[in-house]
Here is the input.
Amino acid sequence: MPRRRLIYVPFWATYVFLYTPIVVLVVMSFNAGKSPYVFEGVSLKWYGELAGDDTVLHGLVNTLIVAAGSTVLSTVLGTLLAVGMARHSRSRLLDALGLLPAVLPDLVLAIGLLVFYAAVKMTLGLHSVILAHTVFGLAFVAAVVRTRLVHADTSLEEASRDLGASPLTTFVRITLPTLAPGIAAGALLAFTLSLDEFVIAFFTAAPTEPTLPIVIYSMVRFGVTPEINALATILLAVSFTVIIVAQRMTRLTESLS
Amino acid sequence: MSRTRYTRHLPAAVVAAGLALALAACGGSSTSADGTAPSAAADQLNPNADLSKQSLTMSIWPDYSPKDLPQQVQQKLGFPLKVALHDTNEMAMAKLTANADSGVDVAFVSGQYAQALNEQGLLEPLHPELIPNLANLYPEAAQLSFDKGNKFSVPYTWGTTGICYRSDLVKTPPTSWNDLLTPAPELKGKVTMMTTERWLALPALKVMGASINTTDDKQLGQAKEMLVKAKDAGMLYDDTTFGAKLDKGEAALVEAWDGWCPTTNPKIKFVVPKEGSDLWSDTMVIMKTSKNKEAAHAFINYILDPAVHSWVAENILYKVPNKAAMDLFAKNNKAMLDSNAPLQMTPAELLKGESIVDLGEASTKYTRLATEISANQ
Amino acid sequence: MTTEHDIAPPGAAARPTTGRAPRRPRALGGAAARLAFLGPGIGYLIVLLIVPLALIVGYTVFRRGRFGGVVYEATTENFTRLFDPLYFDIVVSSVRTATLTTLIALLIGYPTAYVIAGLPRKWKTIALVAIVLPFWTNFLIRVYAWVILLSGPGLVNETLTGAGLIDEPLQLLYNQGTIVTGLLYSYLPLMVLPLYAAIERLDPQLREASANLGARPVRTFWSVTLPLTLPGVLTGCVFVFVPCLGNFVIPEILGGGRSIMVGNLIRDQFLKARDWPFGSTLALAVIAVLVLLLFVQAWAARINGGAEDRRA
Here is the structure.
């Protein structure tokens, strides 16, 4: 069946295409030499350099602050919006508004915010990036939570209401626990997106407070290769661990419930 | 029925509320911005101000100042120094001009950009009495055409643009900008030019014998033709990593700022083409919005100390317009100076180069030229 | 404030409704609750999304300030400039590059998603995670990896010379093809995921029925599989096209200053030329292209709606 086999060609090509650069990055991060092309022996030298690089560390701390701040804001606003959209509105305009940040090119949002901050004369800093990242963060949280809401059983909420519980009580004691996995997934998504976001941060960060992607952009432009490779490898290792842990945890919660 | 009413009206109500909020924010802060409106008058500064109550933020290129400068400043001047980095002049300008207060006190930008900032009323006129170390500068340092007399900027480094090349990879050493624009065939794919618009135009304008500050459309059109031809012949563009590429042999002949030409590698040489070149200067300026102007002056004065300023020549191989610092450097690093031709250029030689000045409205012509070159396929 | 649902019997939610979605019960309280839930999010999006977008649209009719910002004098010159061949050609060639990337992504992504959907459960999970994983390391570093791979002494040239296919290293970097490679590399997963979701939902019985009726696999694909997965195809195309069109980082890193896209042009108007009105006009052009695209998507989805309804 040659045709059956043929379909595996693009399949494998996709993975080779996706992973060749990553393998090169990881291997070259352990290179003892400075050349990005010739492997001259195993060394952890570049990891040492990276650990002592204050600019990278400063960027990392800033990125974590931004990601944490925007995740908290996005989760609160996004969850409320999702519940509101699923339970209190049928407006298609509202649906479109909720989707807009996800389909808008990041560059357009970035310059819009740059212009907006200038118009209201807001001083830039980490707060301006947090506010900016929350725009798309809340949209993604709302989308994820809504998927969960659509599939959720509403009879509990109604029962709670019928028994005389206030809307607030119903929301806190019934709706929120039901939505918890969706909220957690949405928060994780918002955090991840913020962590790696470059374009919007590039336009809205203060010059004194660059995030890690901004620092990396500068490193890429100045061609500090081996250190970049080490950084990429660490990021990959951390992400991989997070994915495995998240998977284990979902399996755990699934088996518990 | 009522459902329709709510869903129609609620968004409208929120839109109105949001707009009100946004407008309130606009109105509120524009009043507070009145105090920082552009004006040419210098602030009254207190020469005896308690610097320990101030703190300073500077914006500078990466690796362009000592890594331990914040510690030095804290120790010697008694106030904390925060370092912000910008990759290019454009990035610095974007951040310094986009918002009312960028949070930056002292910025390091090239001369023509300092001039543009000043024309916009964003710079604090310098108080020379607070910078006694200005006396260390060469007299030529006050003759830079973007700021004669150092009214709003103090030069940090200066130099020129030329051709940096691998003597082992080129058959005949370059002497003219034409050697860059129409390179020998064996160099194909190994020649780079800079993309920052004024330096992109420089080689072509110099070949034509035109001023590098020309705003004449005919001359710029001619320059465009030459640059497009160069691109068609395989020119590559690089503003930041040409030194490393030469070092690795990935490039053989590049347009370069003298200090970025890695002549520490004995195979790499630097030449100022016979048609002449520019005189560029990276300067220190104090932002009008700074609330730490006394500290800013003390900081600039500290940089101009010979022991501090000579760090630049020793570590990044840039010439500094500071006579005392260059003398100190020459005394301590004789071998390095002897082996490095660009470092030996005298102020008089440098002044033969043409300063790039801000062209105001006409600067868009250079932006367009740069776009035309990169869009050409 | 009462709505019809406040007086509706509690069991109303269970009643079948005529709408497409499961009926949304709206029994958590009246207007106050609605405002409490919807207000913060909508307010936030209006201030930090709609107002900024409105500013962009508004700025397109004003003159640039000499040092950035705008001068509030009405003008049409920004639109005149937009149709200046220099800029218009860049917009057109960017659309072309984004389209090309999207098509290649579709051609590679469809069979990939198809194979993944047919894998046993355990392998399916692994294959999907492997598609997403590259997203979890920094985007800029991944793009930069291609500079290392494709440069003169890089891996690709070494392999080709080693295999005796070429004598001299090829100039693989800094051209239109490099940019497409970088874009494809960055956004291919965004094509595979929605395609996978669409193919996964497909009822295998449909294909079997088609085969049993004597249709050849190719015909089954064209007349059954593809139409049924069209929504996924359209979503994937939008997901890939949008970030490609507005990109400025990939052309910068992989284009080596020899090619630019509309994203670079917009970025430069804001960071170099400090011409906010023209930058806004270019951004508006990008938005216009995307709105057009979304209309095409909605239209194609509606034409395909018949198949959707039959499934639902």
